[in-house]
């Protein structure tokens, strides 16, 4: 074990798989000599050469479809979409093609492609470069959706994604790239569809995704001082969702809060909250299953407003207190 | 820019020519059958017939090797048949039967036959361009030596993915042929009003690839042009844009009053540029085919199609459990 | 009043507004002489001419952005996207441009564009022509989202949409086009953001959208025979959502079921269900807030499977019974 | 295809020329200030400087009338300034202040000034093409007589929306000029490797519109070419594609080691093709400008920019309530 960053861990996962499997390659804008907009592929061009680290023109629809077509015919491409906001240009290829080909063809094609893409706000990049749109892809049958929150999860889940025979959306968070954590040096996988209890607790379950896991863990520390012990669950994969782990926790704590950075309205937090509300946990709930999520605005540029637009540690602390003070 | 008329290529044997004619006739009869069954209410959903466009499918795919691949369109029955698909399983798919190519889940717009190198029809106009490009990338990276034809219509040449894909294929020298079946209309939109240039093939020049416009009613001309493009692709010289001028004899899809074109225009094409009639006549003139043999083929095809219908109609429905199967690999 | 179809009603709304306001025009693929893929614009070319009924090339990104650019500069375009599945090609223009321009520019632009588009399954058109993706757009701040279920709602809401100064997504349902209903002849508006109680009841609230309103009304009839009286609420507009009407109903019935055709996982039904669960109705709930929605598959072509893929009358009846038989 | 060198257009008065030079200098100093403030940590987020590309913004917009409109890009400060925007409010926007063009909500990539006909910068590469096309449609439908310039980079010419928009503008004869600032790189991607042709302007031929490649370091050549295109557009003859060869002297955005190009290449451009140095020299040679006047302009601009900085820095932050304002009209 050693500490490496989230970005390094993503790179390591790719590099290790690429060393072992000739069919795996990366493509994307500026991923070669530039190392990608966030430096994730730094140095990979040198090791793997321009055939396997393919810098593309700015053509999101074509490069995405190209990855899909290559996947259908025997390759295992990893596509880096420079910002997850640009999925909007490749949506047809992801949603109408990659997700559906296998089913439409009666089970005959498989599309082992991984689409890695940074999401989230906090970098001062404003409305067109800061979105968290993972809910869209999680709504589409045929896709798997992963949202790792730590360096170690990123590495193991990315390997699992590359080995998976289905199209996988892999949402990284731009503010997490620099975050350090313990990561095993060997290549390893974390199974897709298994949530991780990031902190055990008894008083209330918080299901948090991506960067909100860290904000929730900070909130947990503060709440701990007040003798409030929350359990923090990171689903890690949105599709498939590990409903069991979540429900089991809520059965224990009797209270659930779902925290996402994505806009609350219509976000995947609604799916998780509804799922809990529909489950056997319903009869044991001591408070409404609640959500914290982004406010109903495009992401503002001003840093103070930008912070206000998504849940912060204080918001989580306050919400948990409110839920516990209820009746 | 516009291709020369080629008459009877040297490397096509008489047998191959007759086989190509036969394929064209199969396509024609197949489409007639589909239309008939649709009218009888046996087929639901929609259908896009390629009647009149048989020479593009057969000529282009005829120039390929077995290992080569294609991507097809919503108007894809001809491509399927030319690539060797079983018409019984195709009809079964249209009838939404379990024995269909997609187990009844895809229908006309999504027939694929990966074993034969048919990467599938596509309900999204120009949806296949990026996929074909990717399949060609596999060929190049794995040195598999196959070529990919990406079929599309005139209307598809106005989609962004057309542009992006042609550019990508060009800069990466990929072994792909972008084959435009310009049948003058995109649904109701006359291509003349949808682009400001004469030939779609001119667009090749934006990507530094060769572009050629050919007579899509002449199966041998289609064959020649595709053969040349395939050789170029296979030898690492990259993609080609081929535009074949053709015409769909029928409406766009199931219900189409064809108000956007005149009956005279249709008659002109149907009587003067029917690719099957033209090819048959030239084979007879050449002495490769006799009137009797031609009739025998027609009869044979007819019973071939009837048999396919029998197979399809007698096939079982997919099981309810299959609904949730094959979503994930 | 007279009976006209949903399609006629949409056409009438457009025609009446176009007669009154020169700035309103339509654009889209095949909307001229062909009358659109579903005949909605039939005859409009004759009345308004090719300048105001503009048939476009097959270029969804450009025609959508063109409508947006025209809207920014003084026109009030109505864009017909031939199938709502094709939004996937115009997503950037809708989500990154139309929805955000005003906010990004500090309140300076307005984008009065209406994007009309048919959604839904049931026509045997398979996976790429049958989706219900309204949840995506309802997740995006800056957009309004409308989903009318009756001819009369369609007319009044479309007029309101055209008069609105914001980008409005207007989801029609292809199976509803032929449905007849009473529609006033005069031009009228139905305010955006007001739900409609399609049927009053006391035992359980069903919130249903689009075609599911009709299936639920049928279910209500059957249930009525068993002396079960459900209340049927049609939100009509997803954004803004008339939460008050829904919550009031649930406070009365103490049970809520949300029915959408869209895939259940991550659908807008989750938003509605979570919203109810978070509201003051929570303490009065006698059963979990439940959802019925599409199964987790691309839409199959086979008509039997296609029906199985989305909620049917029988499913609703059964679910309501289950919820009432609970404890 | 490649434009001729025009030296000193007849319809530009000496005053106008000096004004253009002054604008170019304002842009240069503005960008220097932005860079400086960024390095000092006063500006957050990112920035894309147009240093070295001043002649395209000033030459092109200089050829417009006041009522004409533009759409801009992520590298848009120069366009804003040339269209007449207040640099104090621009800097205030970069500082995320309430007095900024977007009330601090947009930042560098989203500055718009609709009153002046600047329809806004865009963070999406080629995101502006459809919007410009739509704005041109308004001009045509309402007979407003204005022309729209759609600015974009070389990299943007590989996006599907470029293709779709040029085609749409061409078939509808819209008064729009697609103005490509080809600075040889798209972030790190050398355009030579991203397209298979020599000039982006060649792509005009796919749409039946004129295309021209010009020297983007020569502000008068830019002016001339744009003037011609604007006249064509205004008289109903439709769109033009202009490609101006230029170079960004700085990195792509805030942190860019510029490994994808050599220091020699940079030096070549900076020493030999600096549009400001060239224009200044030619004006001095022509006798339109004296060395002293040139220096006076520099000094004036410097204090102009300092004043803007003062305004921006002393401006208030937006109120917390403004977070949820201006989402809907
Ligand atoms: C992206 C997309 N836009 C629109 C449609 C609807 N549509 C299906 S076929 C068609 C016309 C296609 O014209 P063309 O490419 O010329 O092919 P043809 O039908 O003439 O063979 C249209 C508009 C679609 N399926 N996909
Ligand atoms: C759709 C999209 N893809 C990628 C990006 C990331 N990006 C921003 S600027 C840029 C390079 C653009 O190159 P070019 O068009 O040549 O303009 P330049 O930066 O050279 O002025 C890229 C890749 C983006 N903003 N939008
Ligand atoms: Mg056509
Ligand atoms: Mg550039």
TrEMBL record, chains A, C:
Keywords carried by this UniProt record: Oxidoreductase, Thiamine pyrophosphate
UniProt cofactor(s): thiamine diphosphate
SMART domains, A to Z: Transket_pyr
Record organism: Salipaludibacillus keqinensis
Superkingdom to which the source organism belongs: Bacteria
Gene3D superfamilies linked to this entry: 3.40.50.920, 3.40.50.970
Record domain Transketolase-like pyrimidine-binding: where: 4-179
Descriptive protein name: Alpha-ketoacid dehydrogenase subunit beta
GO MF assignments: oxidoreductase activity
Pfam families with a match to the protein in the record: Transket_pyr, Transketolase_C
UniProtKB/TrEMBL annotation, chains B, D:
Protein origin, superkingdom: Bacteria
Pfam families: E1_dh
The keyword Cell division belongs to this UniProt entry's keyword annotation: no
Designated name of the protein: Pyruvate dehydrogenase
Reported cofactor(s): thiamine diphosphate
UniProt entry tagged with the keyword S-adenosyl-L-methionine: no
GO biological process: pyruvate decarboxylation to acetyl-CoA
GO molecular function terms noted in the UniProt entry: pyruvate dehydrogenase (acetyl-transferring) activity
Region of interest (Disordered), ranges: 307-329
Keyword list, A-Z: Oxidoreductase, Pyruvate, Thiamine pyrophosphate
Domain Dehydrogenase E1 component: 23-321
């Amino acid at each position: 074990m050693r500490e490496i960053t989230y970005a390094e861990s993503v790179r390591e996962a790719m590099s290790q798989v690429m060393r072992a499997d000739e069919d795996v390659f990366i493509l994307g804008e500026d991923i070669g000599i530039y190392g990608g907009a966030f430096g994730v592929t730094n140095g990979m061009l040198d090791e793997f050469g321009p055939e396997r680290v393919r810098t593309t023109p700015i053509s999101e629809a074509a490069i995405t479809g190209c990855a899909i077509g290559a996947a259908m015919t025997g390759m295992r491409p990893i596509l880096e979409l420079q910002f997850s906001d640009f999925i909007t240009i490749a949506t047809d290829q992801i949603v109408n093609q990659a997700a559906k080909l296998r089913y439409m063809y009666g089970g005959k094609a498989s599309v082992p492609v991984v689409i890695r893409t940074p999401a989230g706000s906090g970098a001062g990049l404003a409305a067109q470069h800061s979105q968290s749109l993972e809910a869209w892809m999680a709504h589409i049958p045929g896709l798997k959706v992963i949202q790792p929150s730590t360096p170690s999860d990123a590495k193991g889940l990315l390997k699992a994604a590359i080995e998976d025979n289905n199209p996988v959306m892999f949402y990284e968070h731009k503010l997490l790239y620099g975050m350090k954590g313990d990561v095993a040096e060997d290549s390893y996988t974390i199974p897709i569809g298994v949530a991780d209890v990031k902190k055990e607790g008894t008083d209330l379950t918080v299901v948090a995704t991506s960067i909100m896991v860290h904000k929730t863990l900070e909130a947990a520390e503060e709440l701990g001082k007040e003798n409030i012990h929350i359990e923090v669950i990171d689903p890690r994969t949105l599709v498939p969702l590990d409903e069991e782990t979540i429900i089991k926790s809520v059965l224990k704590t009797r209270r659930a809060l779902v925290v996402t950075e994505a806009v609350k309205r219509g976000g995947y937090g609604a799916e998780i909250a509804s799922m809990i509300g529909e489950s056997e946990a319903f009869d044991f709930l001591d408070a409404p299953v609640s959500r914290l999520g982004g406010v109903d605005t495009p992401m503002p540029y001003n840093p103070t407003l930008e912070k206000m637009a998504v849940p912060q540690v204080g918001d989580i602390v306050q919400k948990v207190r409110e839920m516990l003070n209820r009746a | 820019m516009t291709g020369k008329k080629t008459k009877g290529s040297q490397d096509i044997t008489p047998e191959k020519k007759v086989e190509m004619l036969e394929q064209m006739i199969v396509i024609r009869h197949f489409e007639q059958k589909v239309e008939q069954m649709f009218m009888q209410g046996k087929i639901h959903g929609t259908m896009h017939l390629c009647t009149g466009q048989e020479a593009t499918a057969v000529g282009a795919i005829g120039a390929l090797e077995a290992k080569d691949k294609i991507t097809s369109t919503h108007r894809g029955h001809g491509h399927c048949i030319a690539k060797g698909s079983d018409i019984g399983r195709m009809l079964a798919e249209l009838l939404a039967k379990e024995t269909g190519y997609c187990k009844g889940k895809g229908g006309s717009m999504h027939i694929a036959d990966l074993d034969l190198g048919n990467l599938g029809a596509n309900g999204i106009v120009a949806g296949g361009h990026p996929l074909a490009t990717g399949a060609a990338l596999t060929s190049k990276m794995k040195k598999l030596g196959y070529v990919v034809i990406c079929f599309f219509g005139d209307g598809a040449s106005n989609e962004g993915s057309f542009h992006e894909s042609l550019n990508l294929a060009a800069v990466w020298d990929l072994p792909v042929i972008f084959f435009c079946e310009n049948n003058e209309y995109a649904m109701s939109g006359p291509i003349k009003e949808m682009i400001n240039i004469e030939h779609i093939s001119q667009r090749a020049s934006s990507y530094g690839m060769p572009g050629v416009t050919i007579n899509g009613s002449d199966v041998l001309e289609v064959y020649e042009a595709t053969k040349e493009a395939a050789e170029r692709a296979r030898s690492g010289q990259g993609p080609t844009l081929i535009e074949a001028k053709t015409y769909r004899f029928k409406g766009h899809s199931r219900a189409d009053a064809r108000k956007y074109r005149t009956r005279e225009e249709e008659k002109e094409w149907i009587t003067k540029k029917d690719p099957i009639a033209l090819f048959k006549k030239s084979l007879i003139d050449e002495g490769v085919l006799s009137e009797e043999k031609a009739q025998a083929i027609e009869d044979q095809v007819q019973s071939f199609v009837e048999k396919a219908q029998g197979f399809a109609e007698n096939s079982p429905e997919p099981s309810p459990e299959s609904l949730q199967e094959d979503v994930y690999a």
